[in-house]
């Protein structure tokens, strides 16, 4: 998979943090975790299928599902959420201290000695208490249950899971903090295999009790899977002097009270299940089972989003432990976007195809068509809350990482007292829970299970909004406008995909075909709309996949040619742009950072190769003109409004040189290239003050032989004064990029080779002498470009060149740009941004066609 590596910049430098992971670390960790988790989820789905086949949806399954509340509560509390929130930051801080204090006692072992014995004692007591109090627990959870005796028996069996779940969560957190993801991801494979085995063997003899026995055995296997890797991690930890292992000052101090807010949040979050079971117990038999099956299917859309949090959480925790708030913020913003994109495409699929999916998975044996319709309806209502579930999973992890369960021994203990802000997630969850209860009580009498699902979605969405505010209060300064804009684009794409997918799902009566056709339609429409709307989480993986895995040559895998090596055979020149070239390649730091003067002995860059083109706006003149036959002039008022729109939407205008450098470094973010052709004098008078006001930069492409004169090439247009020699020099000294627009503003296609060399080489030489610095950018006069022109520009030593349209030559020496005129307001600029992205995709698709790739 392709991993987004863009990191936004901030004003203040970050303190030195832990070493950054390898570029492919997240992709590999995500791949391993995704594979094993998908396997575990598949076994879990098979488990639910067997439950539905053997027992259907009746009083017996309702009794088991009440008992299932114990492991269902213990898993997030002890494995997925609370334990991870506590121990991943704790082990991350211990690892940071190990790096800082190589000669002291090992903080990791010290942490284990201080926490594990107490944890085991607490887990044993809690497990015993649950087993003894099973009757009261069942009476509290489901007072209207028809057969409470069966529920009590199953609850006492599932109470065993508390101890192994806690051990598995503790060991898994330690391994993830060490960036070991394989064993923690495998625990649900072992868990569900045990349940499947007991169900297959004992369902006829023990009935629904066999499911409870399988849960107990599976929990023991979960802990067993992790013991070996955990012990090996402790054994291979860095050897220390014998006397230093127990001597010296303590590196870490436990903060027991920090556990309370984390446990309170997890329990409050899980209380939504308690509410469903409580209110659902008074509804017709089978309602709880319908809610359970709907929740299981809906949560499949959450799997990939949770995987992102699982893999990146140790990175966020390590960054926060080292005091690097910038890295933590950037990582959280990426996680929010990526998790939302994944869960929204799953949500759109469920909205469109829920009846077909439920019929395909469950409608057999004791599970009837009535059960299918009821479960599918609940799934669609549940799905409204899935994006909020993903956001909560992303945001609550860094929130609790700011205040881990341990602190450094040399830190002031008064600064680590539990405050009201530590309880903010609990309060946010409580408000959401109140919304859930209110909506559930109001809607259940009229809509039954659908009312409960609606309350769940409303409550969790309320909590997500409050937690977004809480991260800001916690000191993780998310750029909220940027986050909301990205979420809006993804949501719009999901709505469109769900609508089209719903129509596709109805084309066939076969559940299998309907699921396949509807799912593929949703995926394709979501990808197309997400790209058109400018959602980077959709567009970047799509273009990256086209560049990496499409047919044809892959420029990144080709060895670089040196100056001494003979040049490869060049294709025949064409006066018109070729239609089969790949889009531009901007991934090479070495190429982007190569000084423009270093033309001797350097590797020649390929023309028309790579991945995608940055968004560059093309201006000409900024002035008040009554006559503008070529539509090249933007009024100062309109220009100021356009720059204000860029600033308001979180974008920053920069020179083309700065934009390409930022893309090479992965820091482009919301940067937009600003270019001004022809070198009109009004650039200095009207454009520069507005750009300076917003902190923007830009590139001015000037014509060296015509500086100080007028635009004589525009036969029908008004005469405009061009920048003078002194103005160009002053602009360059002030930091504005100066590029070449040809020596005399002549169209390059069709010129003899000698004239091409004059227009490119001589214009660059003249400008470098004028400004006393390098000139790295070229802009084709009239936007006219052919293959020979791109070669001439490259051979003249330029670092890049700007054209206008996307074409077969689109690449580093033919960067496409978006024309901006006086009629372009916010809506038209958004449309041009989307059009640019769509053309990027189309150019990439054309470049991948077999038979064209070699051009």
Automatic annotation (TrEMBL):
Chain ranges passing through the membrane: 25-46, 118-138, 150-173, 185-206, 212-231, 251-268, 300-321, 341-362, 382-400, 421-443, 449-468, 513-536
Taken from the UniProt entry, a GO cellular component term is: plasma membrane
Q: Which intervals of the chain are annotated as region Disordered?
A: 1-21, 549-583
Q: InterPro entries recorded for this chain?
A: Glyco_hydro/deAcase_b/a-brl (IPR011330), Lipid_II_flippase_MurJ/MviN (IPR051050), MurJ (IPR004268), NODB_dom (IPR002509)
What GO terms describe the biological role, i.e. biological process, of this protein? carbohydrate metabolic process; lipid translocation; peptidoglycan biosynthetic process; regulation of cell shape
Q: What keywords were assigned to this record?
A: Cell membrane, Cell shape, Membrane, Peptidoglycan synthesis, Transmembrane, Transmembrane helix
Q: Can the keyword Transmembrane be found in this entry's annotation?
A: yes
Question: Domain of life here?
Answer: Bacteria
Annotated membrane topology is: Multi-pass membrane protein
Identify the Pfam families for this entry. Answer: MurJ (PF03023), Polysacc_deac_1 (PF01522)
Q: Which residues form the NodB homology domain?
A: 670-855
CDD domains recorded for this chain?
CE4_NodB_like_5s_6s (cd10918)
Subcellular location field: Cell membrane
Entry GO MF terms: hydrolase activity, acting on carbon-nitrogen (but not peptide) bonds; lipid-linked peptidoglycan transporter activity
Q: Does the keyword Transmembrane helix apply?
A: yes
Can you say what this protein is called?
Answer: NodB homology domain-containing protein
């Amino acid at each position: 998979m392709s991993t987004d590596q863009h990191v936004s910049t901030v004003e203040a430098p970050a303190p030195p943090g832990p070493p950054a992971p390898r570029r492919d670390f997240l992709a590999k960790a995500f791949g391993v975790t995704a594979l094993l988790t998908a396997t575990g989820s598949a076994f879990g789905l098979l488990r639910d299928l067997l439950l539905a086949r053997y027992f259907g949806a009746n009083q017996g399954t309702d009794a088991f599902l009440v008992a299932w509340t114990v492991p269902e509560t213990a898993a997030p509390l002890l494995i997925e959420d609370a334990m991870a929130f506590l121990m991943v930051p704790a082990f991350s801080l211990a690892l940071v201290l190990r790096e800082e204090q190589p000669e002291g006692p090992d903080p990791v072992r010290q942490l284990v000695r201080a926490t594990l014995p107490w944890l085991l004692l607490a887990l044993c007591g809690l497990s015993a208490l649950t087993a003894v109090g099973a009757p009261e627990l069942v009476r509290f959870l489901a007072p209207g249950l028809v057969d409470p005796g069966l529920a009590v028996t199953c609850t006492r069996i599932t109470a065993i899971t508390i101890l192994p779940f806690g051990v598995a969560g503790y060991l898994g957190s330690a391994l993830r903090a060490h960036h070991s993801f394989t064993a923690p991801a495998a625990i649900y494979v072992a868990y569900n295999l045990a349940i499947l085995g007991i169900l297959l063997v004992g369902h006829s003899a023990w009935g629904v009790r066999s499911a409870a026995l399988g849960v107990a055995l599976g929990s023991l296997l979960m802990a067993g899977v992790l013991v070996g890797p955990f012990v090996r991690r402790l054994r291979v930890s860095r050897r220390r002097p014998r006397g230093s292992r127990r001597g010296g000052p303590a590196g870490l101090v436990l903060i027991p009270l920090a556990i309370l807010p984390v446990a309170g949040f997890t329990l409050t979050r899980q209380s939504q299940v308690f509410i469903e079971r409580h209110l659902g117990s008074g509804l017709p038999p089978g309602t709880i089972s319908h809610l359970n099956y709907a929740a299981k299917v809906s949560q499949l859309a959450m799997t990939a989003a949770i995987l992102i949090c699982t893999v990146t959480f140790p990175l966020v925790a390590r960054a926060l432990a080292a005091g690097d708030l910038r890295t933590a913020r950037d990582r959280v913003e990426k996680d929010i976007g990526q998790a939302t994109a994944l869960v929204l495409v799953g949500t759109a699929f469920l909205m469109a195809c829920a009846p077909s999916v439920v019929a395909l998975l469950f409608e057999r044996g004791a599970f009837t068509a009535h059960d299918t319709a009821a479960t599918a309806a609940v799934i669609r209502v549940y799905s409204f809350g899935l994006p909020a579930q993903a956001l909560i999973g992303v945001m609550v992890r860094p929130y609790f990482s700011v205040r881990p369960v341990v602190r450094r021994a040399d830190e002031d203990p008064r600064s680590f007292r539990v405050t009201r802000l530590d309880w903010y997630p609990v309060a946010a969850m409580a408000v959401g829970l109140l919304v859930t209860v209110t909506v559930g009580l109001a809607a259940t009498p009229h809509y039954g299970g659908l009312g409960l699902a609606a309350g769940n979605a409303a409550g969790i969405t309320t909590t997500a909004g409050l937690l977004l505010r809480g991260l800001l209060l916690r000191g993780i300064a998310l750029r909220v406008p940027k986050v909301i804009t990205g979420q809006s684009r993804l949501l719009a794409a999901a709505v469109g995909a769900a609508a089209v997918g719903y129509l596709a799902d109805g084309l066939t009566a076969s559940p299998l075909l309907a699921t396949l056709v509807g799912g593929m339609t949703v995926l394709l429409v979501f990808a197309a709309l997400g790209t058109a709307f400018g959602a980077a989480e959709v567009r970047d993986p799509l273009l990256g996949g086209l560049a990496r895995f499409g047919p044809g040559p892959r420029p990144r895998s080709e060895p670089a040619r040196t100056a001494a090596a003979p040049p490869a055979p060049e294709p025949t020149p064409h006066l018109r742009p070729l239609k089969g070239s790949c889009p531009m390649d901007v991934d090479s730091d070495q190429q982007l950072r190569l000084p423009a003067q270093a033309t001797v002995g350097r590797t020649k860059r390929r023309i028309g190769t790579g991945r995608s083109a940055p968004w560059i706006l093309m201006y000409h003149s900024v002035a008040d003109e009554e006559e503008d036959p070529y539509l090249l002039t933007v009024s100062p008022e309109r220009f100021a409004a356009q720059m204000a729109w860029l600033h308001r939407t979180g974008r920053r205008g920069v020179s083309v040189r700065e934009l390409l450098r930022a893309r090479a470094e992965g820091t482009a973010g919301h940067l937009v290239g600003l270019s001004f052709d022809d070198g009109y004098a009004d650039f200095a008078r009207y454009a520069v003050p507005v750009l300076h006001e917003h902190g923007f930069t830009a590139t001015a492409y000037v014509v060296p032989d015509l500086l100080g004169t007028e635009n004589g090439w525009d036969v029908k247009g008004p005469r405009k004064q061009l920048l003078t020699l002194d103005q160009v020099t002053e602009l360059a000294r002030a930091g504005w990029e100066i590029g070449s627009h040809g020596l005399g503003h002549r169209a390059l296609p069709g010129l003899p080779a000698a004239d091409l060399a004059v227009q490119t080489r001589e214009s660059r030489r003249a400008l470098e002498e004028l400004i006393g610095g390098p000139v790295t950018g070229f802009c084709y006069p009239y936007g006219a470009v052919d293959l020979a022109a791109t070669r001439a520009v490259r051979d003249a030593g330029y670092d890049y060149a700007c054209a206008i349209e996307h074409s077969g030559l689109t690449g580093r020496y033919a960067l496409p740009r978006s024309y901006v005129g006086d009629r372009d307001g916010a809506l038209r600029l958004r449309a041009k941004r989307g059009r640019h992205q769509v053309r990027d995709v189309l150019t990439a698709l054309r470049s991948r066609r077999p038979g064209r790739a070699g051009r």
